[in-house]
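User: I'll paste a sequence; please echo it back and then give the predicted structure.

Assistant: Echoing your sequence first, then the prediction.
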Amino acid sequence: MAARVLFQTSARSHGEASMGERILLSGGCGFIGSHLVRALLGAGHRVTVLDDLSTGALTSLPASPHLEFVQGSILDPVPVTRAARGVDAVVHLAGVVGMRLATERREEAHRVAAEGTRRLLEATGDAPALLVSSSAVYGLGKGGPVREEDAAGPGGCLQYDGGLPGYASGKLALEAAGAEHAARGRPVRVLRPFNVVGPGQSAAYGMVLPTFVRRALEGRPLVVHDDGEQTRTFSDVRTFVACAVRLLSRPEAWSPTDLAVNVGATTPIRIGELARLVVEETGAEVPVEFVPYHRAFPGRRDVRAREPDVSRLRSLLGPVEWPGMREIVRDVVAWRRALAPSWRATVPPPRPAASGTAGGI
C-alpha cells in the first residue's frame, strides 16, 4: 500500500496529491537537513537540495537517483530559480548556524533569514512551505516554558541580537514573510526548534554539546560561559525530524492561523550539569572552567532559561517521547569516537571556537 503524502496540497488543487512529489530543501547538506533528506527519500519523494556548502558537506547526502543537488546561496537568484523548477513543496532550513558564527557574521545571518526567505518563497509560487525558524525569536525570555504567542517581537529580538539586527531579528523576518504568503492562501507552517542535537553535528561553529564532547575527548577543559546555572532543553535530531514529517502529513498542520509550532524536548538541564555529564560519559579527566559571558560575546546578554511549551505540538501529534540527555550524550560520544579520518577531512575547516554556547540557535 502506498504511503500517504507528506504535504497538504497547495492552493492549486484540493484533496491529497500523489506520492513522488519533488521537495525543495534549502540547507539540506547541514546537520538537520541531511537527516531530513533521508526521511523524505525514505517516504518516496524526490528531493532537490539547495546549499552553498558554507557549513554543510556534500558528503553528508546519501546516494540516490531521486536526489538532485544545486549549489548556491538563497541570496543568489540564479541557483534559487534553478532549484525551484517543478517543485511541489518547500522545506526551508538554510541559515547561518551556531551562536558564535551568527555573531561573527551578524549581517549575513540577518540577510540569509530575511532576504533569502523572501526570495525562496517568491521563486516557489504557491507550493506548501515549511519554514524552520528558531527559539531565538523568544528573545531573552520571560522565565518558564514559552508558548508560541510569547515571541519577543522586533524590539526583543533586537535586544537578543545585541542592539543591531542579526540572527533573531532575521528569523522574525522569516516568520513575517511566511505569514504574508499564508495570508494570500498559501499553505505555510513555521517550526521553532529548541537546541536540536545528535550524531553528525559539527563542533566548528560553537554548538555547545558537540563542542563539549570534542574538547573532552581531546583532553581539553570544558569552558562554560557565565555561572553554568542557565538552563536549556536539548532535542534529539531524529525525533525532531520525525515530528516534522508527521506534522507535514496532517491537514490541520496547515491552518492559515497559528502558523508557528514549538518542536523540542521539555526537560531542562543546567549547562554546568551538561558539562559534568559529558565528562562522566567520556571518562575524560578534564576540568570544567567558567568564563564570564561578556568576554565571549561583548555587548550581549545570555538567555538564563529556555524551554518550550509544546501544547500546540501535542494537540497535533499527541505526546512525543524525546530521548533523555544522558542517552543523547552517549550517542554523540559514540559517534565522535567512531569518526573516520576520511570523513573528518570532508567537513568544513573549524573556526576558532574555544568553548560552547547554549544560545537559542
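The domain at 22-199+236-265+302-322 is CATH 3.40.50.720 (Rossmann fold). The CA atoms of residues 173 and 261 lie 16 Å apart.
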